[in-house]
Design a protein that fits this description.
Strand order of the largest sheet: 1-5-3-4-2
Helix content: 40-55%
Number of domains: 2
Length: 335
């Protein structure tokens, strides 16, 4: 292979190249189209949101007999198919200026123009042989690290519930960092997204044991549409707005900076008939943190029962037994 030349092509140019039959999106080494509609809609939403889209790789050669360019898609087949199908009105996608998913013909003229003028990165593999193409295709599609369960869910799903949880987790980023809830590594591995997902499932379905399999089923059940989205957003906004009334970083260094303890506090507050005063929340945080520390240090081993102490400190804090113990302990501060 001689080289890789990168350039930006607007979507309109890609559409036109395909219409002229100058772009082969299904060469012999490509896998068949497998994206679901939610995955396609997520890609189009990514374009609307002006978020990065992975580069498309194209083998570029010259047919000397016809003196025409020959372009084969090495990687990016499904992205291109997705753009073609959206332009053809085959599915709807979420647009930031529309309350509901919209098809292409439901966009305003400026929105259609913006979509068509969106530039995508294309890498042209100049002079690539079949051997080069197979090696590059394999390298591009090789996962470089072992994915955790939430990263696998993120790869598997692209629909309504996934997008909701991603948006909510990102919205709370300053809170996670200021209070030391999740480390940068946790956030890079989507641990905070799993936290939000599990929290929402418990708010709507009741307190339950953490189950990665159950959470995956919840993603699947809410892939096409998350009917409780507005209710969930309002409840999360109310919960985190109240905690933001605490001094910045107020939870950092306390037992409530542990995700599962914070989880229990949020579940309890959401279930109360009315929002508690910020003073009551502070009293709960201060007193329980002091009692846990008192037992840990040995100053007062009777400050908490062994079971309750373990529910705030053990490595199995996500188990239902410990969730119920924390729920009861925290709820006691709010009458």
């Amino acid at each position: 292979m001689e080289r890789v030349d990168y350039e930006s092509l607007i979507i309109q140019d890609i559409l036109a190249t395909h219409e002229r039959r100058e772009l082969d999106i299904n060469p012999w080494y490509q896998r068949r189209a497998v994206w679901t509609k939610p995955q396609k809609a997520y890609l189009i939403n990514t374009v609307f949101e002006r978020k990065p889209v992975p580069s498309i790789y194209v083998r570029h050669a010259i047919d000397l007999d016809s003196e025409k360019s020959v372009k084969e898609v090495v990687d990016g087949q499904q992205r291109i198919r997705c753009v073609l199908e959206y332009r053809a009105g085959k599915f709807a996608a979420r647009h930031p200026e529309h309350p509901r998913p919209v098809k292409y013909d439901q966009l305003t003229k400026p929105q259609r123009m913006s979509f068509l003028q969106t530039a995508l990165s294309v890498g042209y593999l100049v002079g690539a042989s079949d051997k080069d193409v197979i090696e590059i295709f394999a390298r591009i599609n090789t996962v470089s690290k072992t994915l955790n369960p939430q990263e696998k869910r993120n790869a598997q799903f692209s629909g309504a519930f996934k997008q909701f949880c991603l948006e909510e987790a990102v919205e709370r980023l300053p809170f996670w960092r200021n209070n030391g809830i999740f480390s940068d590594n946790d956030i890079s591995r989507m641990v905070e997204v799993q936290f939000v997902s599990d929290l929402v499932m418990n708010l709507f379905d009741g307190l339950q044991d953490f189950s990665s399999q159950r959470l995956t089923k919840y993603y699947a059940a809410n892939e096409d549409e998350f009917e409780a989205e507005e209710d969930a957003r309002c409840r999360l906004d109310a919960l985190f707005s109240q905690l933001l009334l605490l001094h910045e970083g107020r939870l950092k260094g306390t037992v409530f900076a542990r995700p599962q303890v914070l989880f229990s506090l949020l579940v309890v507050i959401d279930g109360l008939p009315r929002r508690p005063s910020i003073g009551l929340v502070e009293r709960c945080v201060d007193d329980l943190d002091a009692r846990v520390e008192s037992v840990r240090s040995g100053d007062n081993l009777s400050a908490l029962s062994t079971d309750v102490y373990e529910s705030f400190t053990t490595g199995n804090m996500h188990r239902i037994r410990f969730r119920r113990l924390r729920d009861e302990s925290i709820r006691g501060y709010f009458g």
